[in-house]
Specification:
By secondary structure, the chain is mainly β. About 15% of the residues lie in helices and about 40% in strands.
Amino acid sequence: MSGRVFRLHSTLELPLEDLHEYLEDPDLPSEIDDINLTRRNNTLIIQAEADDESLSKYTPTAQLKASVSETRVYEEEPPRAGGGNPSWSDDEEEEIPSELVEFACFKGDRETVLQNTAVRYPMFLVLKELALLSEKGTLTAITEHDDELDATRIVEGEERSATVEVVENPQKGSGGTGVDWRDNEFIDE
């Protein structure tokens, strides 16, 4: 499989428990023999073991990098007696049940989330699978596979339509909301 990753931006958050469940029996691309998960403090590294025998054991293979954060997740508020109106005579408020959940946060651009070049595209496909499992965040990317450009956009676990727009001058494209640094009156030449 040939393929390249040109642009990538991710704000994905996946419960750590779901990530571990996925890694127990992942459906990996043929170029990846296995993947290893390493945790160093609050950083997760998911590294690919390439199936390609010609790669040196010293060649750094693609890896996904995520930070781990804890978030308090609240259950739905229980229905109140009396038609939903608050009872002002209650001395104590009922505490809403909650639990502390660890999330793997794949946040950043290409080199922040998807590092190293050997088997990068197959490892992007693994990230795409994780994005489909995620209930929070987005994954956007422009990739090339079999000489075709492909736009990927996954929002809160659901694949959405995406297109690649090629323009002669990036300022004239629909995404041209950036600052024109070349013609800025506040910058001296």
